[in-house]
Design a protein that fits this description.
The chain is α+β, with helices and mostly antiparallel strands. The chain has six helices and seven strands. Strands 1, 2, 3, 4, 5, 6 and 7 form a seven-stranded mixed beta sheet that branches. Helix 1 packs parallel to helix 2, helix 3 runs parallel beside helix 6 and helix 4 packs parallel to helix 5. The longest helix is centred in the N-terminal third of the chain and has 53 residues.
Length: 304
């Protein structure tokens, strides 16, 4: 009986020791996996530290997965650098020829041309301006998509943004006979002033373009618990319901846009800028009742 008790006690002790060893080994493996994941998150993972002789099969597979992820990340960074260089080259190499075309088109228009040649000179200038705008818009959109542009949202004044937009677009609206008004606001929000001016400016430019003479465009701001809403509302022709899901697509132009100049990049670029700042866009419109395009930007919860 004593011998049996001793044997059982010995077996129990062995079982406890085995359990303790297994627990310690499991904990050690978990800690090593945790360290590997932490290194991968911080970009410091080195697959050479781990090899099949010194780690478990799970750790080895994890190291291969993280090594693949690191290589993929490095390849994406390299491709992004290539895209940024390519976009920069296109922008730089086309700037001078386009400027020359515009200059010579202007000089040509000032010459005593045959009557039939005058509209041709004007057409050359218009198409060169359109091409210049298209290349600029494409470069901006491509930089945003590739992550080459660092949009830096910070606490910014909506009132100052509206003042800059009024100075930029007021004259164009007045020339067309459209009343452009900005509501007073004391709101602040988290946004990059330069890029947000580009986004909201595109909305105003669209509104001026499609609002008939004598029409009104109202730019306003309002606060929600999480966002600051910047709205551009007009009393133009409106947008059909079936086009609402397409207006933010690249190069999309609705049925009512055929008679207007444009390339279909303004709203697409505005949405990309909003998304890059943690915001989004929304459209409300009915045919014959105008349109309201809104940019929602993260709020900072403070007012002047």
């Amino acid at each position: 009986m004593n011998g049996l008790s001793i044997a059982l006690a010995a077996l129990g002790l062995c079982a406890l020791l085995a359990a303790a060893y297994g627990y310690r080994r499991t904990q050690r493996t978990i800690r090593r996996l945790d360290a590997m994941l932490e290194q991968a998150i911080s970009g410091r993972f080195d697959a050479h530290v781990y090899d099949e002789d010194t780690v478990s099969r799970l750790e080895f597979k994890m190291s291969r997965l993280l090594q693949h992820d690191a290589l993929t990340r490095a390849r994406l960074e390299k491709e992004r650098g290539y895209v940024e260089t390519l976009i920069g080259d296109i922008s730089h190499q086309t700037k001078t020829p386009l400027a020359n075309i515009l200059l010579y088109a202007q000089l040509l228009g000032e010459q005593p041309l045959p009557k039939s040649a005058v509209p041709l000179a004007e057409f050359i200038g218009m198409q060169a301006e359109k091409l210049q705008f298209l290349i600029g818009a494409l470069c901006k959109a491509s930089r945003l998509e590739a992550g080459c542009v660092q949009v830096r949202p910070c606490k910014s004044s909506v009132s100052e943004l509206f003042g800059a937009l009024a100075a930029q677009h007021g004259a164009k609206a007045a020339v067309k006979g459209v009343c452009l008004t900005f509501e007073e606001t004391a709101l602040f929000a988290q946004f990059d002033p330069r890029w947000t001016m580009e986004a909201v400016g595109n909305l105003i430019d669209n509104a001026v373009k499609y609002t008939p003479e004598g029409g009104h465009i109202r730019v306003s701001a309002s606060a929600t618990p999480m966002f600051c809403r910047l709205a551009v509302a007009d009393d133009g022709p409106g947008i059909p319901q079936e086009e609402h899901a397409k207006v933010f697509e690249r190069f999309f132009r609705g049925q009512g846009a055929a008679a207007q100049e444009g390339v279909g990049l303004g709203l697409y670029l505005a949405r990309e800028i909003a998304l890059s700042q943690g915001g989004y866009m929304r459209l409300r419109s009915e045919p014959g009742k105008g349109a309201e395009l809104c940019v929602f930007l993260p709020a900072c919860g403070e007012r002047m």
